[in-house]
Amino acid sequence: MTSLLDFFQRIDQQLFLFLNVEISNSFFDLIMPFITEKQNWYLLIGIIAILLFWKGGIKGRIVVLTLIVSLIISDQTSSSIVKPMIGRLRPCKTLENFRLLIECGSGYSFPSSHAVNIATAAGIFIYNYKRFSVLWITMAVLVGYSRIYVGVHYPFDVFGGFILGSGIALIFMVVSGRIEARFEKFNKSSPST
Question: Which CATH architecture has domain 2-189?
Answer without folding.
Answer: Orthogonal Bundle (1.10)
